[in-house]
């Protein structure tokens, strides 16, 4: 049994050694947050948000060369968990100075933790930003978020498939979803491809369909549930079901198979936010075969061919270092035209800062999209996006909807579906 | 008498560090969670609301669906998995079996899988056009593809398959270790008396392993009542809420929706109460004599 | 007849092994492919292995993540084996009415979902940080502390102790061994298969632990492997080739631990009681 003892002792010894070495490591970090010399920021996506923050830091060096930014990459769901745990426990130890929050979730953070965020009204001029970003990023007359990433949507189309079926992209430009279905049936018949790929367990298409009408699941106050009798919501559900039933849509079950459906050429179109562009371009062999047109609208009065899906903004936490953090954001994301030009050229991020959007860099053509000026087009549509208050319950309501969509597909009456969803939402979210 | 008392104190001494640490890192937070369950509100705006959360819970259709789903998993999955784990451990304990190390490792490995891989692979294998459907179609077991992720019934079956796949090897470990603690001479005696291997299994192995069976039954019950990874990562609780579990619902109330930690705590204590009830039943059936 | 039975057993085990291992095969294949091919379900090995590895190592500090995970898992496991087995042994061998009640109460700690404990526990560590920053929030010790003993392992050891021969203890007492001496010199060696099983499970749980390290670790240089993998998927266009490479690297340690400790599950290894 000696051997066993030796192994055990060796492990213990290693532990002690490791313990000593990591002691030094952790000491440095524990104090890191009392000392606002270093401003920390939490964000997700290294190719996009993180890259944007890095670029901003580089440019800000010219303004304040002592400024130090530590950017910490976390997945979005991880940020949501860490932030909720930290803020609700009242233990601000280790919280970042700057955090990226998705627009759909912003109101829920701002209202659930009223003193946790820093009012940056005096640092930026909110009118410089795309109109639709205002409602999600402000609360009670105060501006908390610095609008950043846009989720402007487009209808990405495979031009070669359209040609095969005898159509041009113009036939699908500025149309309604009903027209999309009509044209779609014909294209599916002629090409044997599916028109679109949907995941009924995550029906995010419903969100951008509904926003084309300037409505939401809640009234303008962001709280009163507005589902029963809401024509936009009703139509979106009908369109969604019809696409599945008429066989123009195929289904996918997760993100990876969603990407696979367009990368492998199974679908003619992708209706989604502009952040999908890099994934579409990942399949280099399809270069020149894609184009982007405005997203279809619902057949409701006042609906426009512009919408949003996702998108996020930057927030400053009300902890030591807040002024420093706000100044940094104001002087880069909040006012620097050149920063945005560099951002679009180097990172491919558009942002929502209007004064910068007419710059030269936004008019570049893209070879992958057959030399279309994709960025300039997206910017145009972005300005049209209806302003919607997402309120605090978007994801809770989406879950209710996903359940009701299931019932609707198996034959439940549409008005009953809406009434039940309304009741469930009211019961759950009072 | 003096010696006995002395030993009793030594027993307490052996357990003292555990009692201290568990009180600090589990019971103290648990107590706070209990207090929290009498409060309600968004995020940091919590107000004392008495038993409101518990009343709300019993009128919450989603919580009831989650409870129902959790019970379905518990009833169909736990006994099946425990029997399977026991079966494999006895097979693999046979010294005449070749490649035992390989088979053991193979059956255990699923429990170390990374959640990311787990979710992607299961969704891929069980997609409507996936390999599993292909295989079943070719063998003419089914005549049209099963919509594993979209159909309320099959989605639950998928969750049960996934849990069994992942956790059978994990439970097998406890049996394998337990089997080594069984006195070999009992088997020798039984062989001399002419007992065959099936008789040995039922009359020696199972009674001897009783403490371990009780352990795996209780811990698997606890694990299933707190089931989270599988519905979260494979079906996302869908279609609709058809595979949602209580733990996933707690997560949703705390992080996915505008957080209400008070209500989440109240839902958690429902799990505590259920687990206590099931554990008492199992201890009684397991014949623990007090 | 016997041959038929043996053939059946091997066929069955081979099928089970295939089902168990298939996802791992997929992981290994995927780490050699590029992202676009993986999401399209390519089942053949590709030529992107080195590219994936170098991308992973260039962009992420996987070395320190491996160290952190290893440190957490080893320290938590070693402490857990000693502290929990002492308690499990104590509750069973020196059994009394009072101890049974305390033991049952301890089991209660297993019954609440961790998500419900997270906020109070985080607040507790916030308090600890004020007094002892070295074991407070944002340290590896904060990850380890709640797992240095759990009711799960106490329960495991207690149940296994029920199968431990009391005669051995009596004999040792006759030989004049102290009670603590009996534990270390008689019980521990005799129960090494249980220790091996508990060691594997504890190492694996700590290695794969996600929720608590996620919340309590803040600095980027003290990430663990599961946190790093979660980060890899954080983008709008995740690189699945790199993700699978990280997953495979992150799976190897637990698999190795199992591989080396599984010899304790072989019959004939026990019986020797001498320390």
What would you say this structure looks like, in words?
The complex is a heterotrimer of chains A (430), B (290) and C (275). With 430 residues, chain A is of the alpha/beta class. Chain A is built from 16 helices and twelve strands. Chain A has helices at residues 2-31, 46-60, 76-89, 103-112, 134-137, 159-164, 177-191, 205-211, 231-245, 255-263, 277-281, 322-331, 337-346, 374-384, 394-409, 414-428, and strands at 38-43, 68-73, 98-102, 138-139, 142-143, 145-147, 153-158, 196-198, 249-251, 269-273, 290-293, 312-316. In chain A, helix 8 (205-211) packs across helix 9 (231-245) and helix 15 (394-409) runs antiparallel to helix 16. Chain A is globular and about 65 Å long. Mean pLDDT of chain A is 89; it is low at 20-33. Chain B is 73% helix and 1% strand. Chain B has 13 helices and two strands. In chain B, helix 4 (100-108) crosses helix 7 (152-180), helix 7 (152-180) packs across helix 11 and helix 12 runs antiparallel to helix 13 (261-285). Chain C contains 14 helices and no strands. Chain C is globular, with a radius of gyration of 23 Å. The chains are: A alpha/beta (430), B mainly alpha (290), C mainly alpha (275). Chains in contact: A-B, A-C, B-C. At the B-C interface, helix 1, helix 3, helix 4, helix 5 and helix 7 of B face helix 1, helix 4, helix 5, helix 6 and helix 8 of C.
Q: What tags apply to this protein structure?
A:
heterotrimer, A: 430 residues, alpha/beta, D-Maltodextrin-Binding Protein, domain 2, 2 domains, five-stranded mixed β-sheet, three-stranded antiparallel β-sheet, 12% strand, globular, C: 275 residues, mainly alpha, MetI-like fold, 14 helices, disordered C terminus
In short:
The complex is a heterotrimer of chains A (430), B (290) and C (275). Chain A is of the alpha/beta class and 430 residues long.
Q: Assign the CATH architecture of the largest domain in chain A.
A: 3-Layer(aba) Sandwich
- The whole-number mean of residue pLDDT values of chain C reads 88
Number of structurally distinct domains of chain A = 2
Number of separate helices of chain C: 14
Query: What is the class of chain C in the CATH system?
Result: Mainly Alpha
Low-confidence stretches of chain A: 20-33
CATH fold group of the largest domain in chain A: D-Maltodextrin-Binding Protein, domain 2
Number of extended strands of chain C: 0
The general outline of chain C is: globular
Q: Biggest interface, and residues per chain?
A: B-C, 94 and 98 residues
> Roughly how many Å apart are the termini of chain C?
44 Å
């Amino acid at each position: 049994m000696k051997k066993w003892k030796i192994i055990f002792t060796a492990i213990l010894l290693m532990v002690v050694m490791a313990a000593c070495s990591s002691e030094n490591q952790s000491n440095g970090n524990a104090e890191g947050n009392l000392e606002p010399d270093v401003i920390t920021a939490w964000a997700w996506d290294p190719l996009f948000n993180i890259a944007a923050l890095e670029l901003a830091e580089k440019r800000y060096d010219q303004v304040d060369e002592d400024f130090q930014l530590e950017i910490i990459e976390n997945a979005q769901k991880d940020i949501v968990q860490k932030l909720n745990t930290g803020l609700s426990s009242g233990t601000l130890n280790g919280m970042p100075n700057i955090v990226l929050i998705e627009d759909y979730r912003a109101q829920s953070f701002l209202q659930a933790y009223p003193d946790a965020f820093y009012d940056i009204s005096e640092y930026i001029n909110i009118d410089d930003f795309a109109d639709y970003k205002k409602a999600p990023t402000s609360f009670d007359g105060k501006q908390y978020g610095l609008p950043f990433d846009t989720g402007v949507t487009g209808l990405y189309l495979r031009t070669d498939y359209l040609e095969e079926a005898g159509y041009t992209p113009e036939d699908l430009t500025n149309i309604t979803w009903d027209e999309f279905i009509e044209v779609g049936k014909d294209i599916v018949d002629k090409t044997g491809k599916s028109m679109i790929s949907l995941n009924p367990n995550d029906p995010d298409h419903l969100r951008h369909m509904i926003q084309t009408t300037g409505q939401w699941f809640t009234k303008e106050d962001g709280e009163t549930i507005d589902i029963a009798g809401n024509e936009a919501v009703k139509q979106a559900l009908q369109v969604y079901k019809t696409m599945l039933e008429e066989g123009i849509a195929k289904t996918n079950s997760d993100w990876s198979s969603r990407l696979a459906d367009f990368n492998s050429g199974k679908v003619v179109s992708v209706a989604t936010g502009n952040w999908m562009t890099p994934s579409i371009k990942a399949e280099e062999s399809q270069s020149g075969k894609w184009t982007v047109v405005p997203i279809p609208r619902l057949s409701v009065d006042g609906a426009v061919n512009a919408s949003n899906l996702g998108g996020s903004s930057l927030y400053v936490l009300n902890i030591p270092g807040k002024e420093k953090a706000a100044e940094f954001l104001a002087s880069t994301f909040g006012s620097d035209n050149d920063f945005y030009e560099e951002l679009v050229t180097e990172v491919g991020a558009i942002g929502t800062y209007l004064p910068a959007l007419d710059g030269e860099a936004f008019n570049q053509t893209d070879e992958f999209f057959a030399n279309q000026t994709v960025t300039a087009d997206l910017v145009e549509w972005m300005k049209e996006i209806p302003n919607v208050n997402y309120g605090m319950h978007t994801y809770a309501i989406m879950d209710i909807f996903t359940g009701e969509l299931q019932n609707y597909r198996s034959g439940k009456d549409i008005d009953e579906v809406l009434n039940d969803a309304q009741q469930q939402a009211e019961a759950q979210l009072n | 008498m003096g010696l006995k008392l002395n030993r009793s104190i030594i027993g307490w001494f052996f357990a003292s560090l555990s009692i201290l640490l568990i009180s600090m890192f589990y019971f103290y937070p648990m107590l706070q969670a209990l207090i929290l369950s009498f409060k309600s509100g968004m995020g940091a705006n919590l107000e004392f609301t008495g038993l409101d959360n518990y009343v709300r819970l019993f009128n919450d259709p989603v919580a009831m669906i989650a409870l129902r789903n959790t019970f379905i998993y518990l009833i169909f999955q736990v006994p099946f998995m425990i029997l399977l784990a026991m079966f494999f451990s006895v097979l693999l304990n046979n010294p005449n079996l070749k490649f035992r190390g390989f088979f053991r490792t193979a059956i255990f490995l699923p429990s170390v899988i990374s959640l990311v891989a787990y979710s992607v692979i299961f969704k891929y294998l069980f997609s409507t056009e996936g390999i599993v459907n292909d295989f079943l179609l070719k063998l003419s077991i089914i005549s049209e593809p099963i919509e594993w992720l979209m159909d309320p019934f099959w989605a639950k079956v998928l969750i049960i398959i996934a849990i069994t796949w992942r956790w059978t090897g994990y439970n097998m470990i406890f049996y394998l270790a337990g089997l080594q603690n069984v006195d070999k001479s009992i088997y020798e005696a039984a062989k001399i008396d002419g007992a065959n291997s099936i008789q040995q299994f039922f009359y020696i192995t199972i009674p001897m392993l009783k403490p371990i069976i009780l352990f795996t039954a209780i811990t698997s019950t606890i694990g299933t009542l707190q089931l989270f990874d599988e519905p979260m990562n494979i079906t996302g609780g869908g279609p609709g809420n058809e595979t949602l579990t209580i733990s996933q619902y707690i997560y949703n109330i705390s992080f996915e929706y505008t957080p209400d930690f008070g209500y989440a705590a109240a839902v958690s204590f429902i799990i505590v109460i259920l687990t206590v009830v099931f554990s008492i039943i199992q201890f009684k059936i397991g014949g623990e004599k007090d | 007849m016997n041959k038929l039975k043996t053939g059946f057993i091997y066929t069955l085990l081979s099928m089970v092994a295939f089902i168990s291992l298939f996802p791992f095969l997929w992981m290994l294949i995927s780490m050699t492919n590029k992202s676009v091919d993986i999401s399209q379900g390519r089942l053949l090995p590709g030529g992107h292995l080195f590219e994936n590895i170098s991308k992973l190592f260039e962009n992420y500090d996987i070395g320190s993540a491996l160290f952190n995970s290893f440190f957490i898992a080893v320290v938590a496991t070693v402490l857990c084996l000693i502290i929990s087995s002492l308690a499990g042994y104590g509750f069973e061998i020196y059994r009394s009415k009072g101890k049974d009640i305390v033991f049952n109460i301890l089991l209660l700690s297993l019954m609440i979902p961790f998500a419900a404990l997270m906020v109070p526990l985080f607040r507790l560590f916030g308090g600890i940080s004020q007094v002892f920053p070295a074991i407070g929030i944002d340290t590896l010790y904060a990850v380890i502390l709640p797992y240095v003993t759990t009711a799960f392992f106490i329960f495991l050891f207690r149940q296994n102790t029920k199968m431990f021969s009391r005669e051995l203890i009596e004999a040792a007492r006759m030989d004049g061994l102290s009670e603590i001496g009996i534990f270390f010199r008689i019980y521990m060696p005799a129960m090494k298969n249980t220790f091996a099983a508990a060691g594997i499970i504890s190492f694996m749980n700590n290695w794969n632990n996600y929720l608590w390290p996620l919340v309590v670790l803040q600095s980027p240089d003290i990430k663990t492997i599961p946190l790093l993998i979660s980060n890899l998927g954080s983008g709008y266009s995740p690189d699945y080739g790199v993700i699978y490479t990280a997953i495979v690297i992150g799976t190897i340690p637990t698999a190795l631990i199992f591989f080396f400790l599984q010899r304790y599950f072989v019959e004939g290894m026990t019986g020797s009681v001498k320390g």
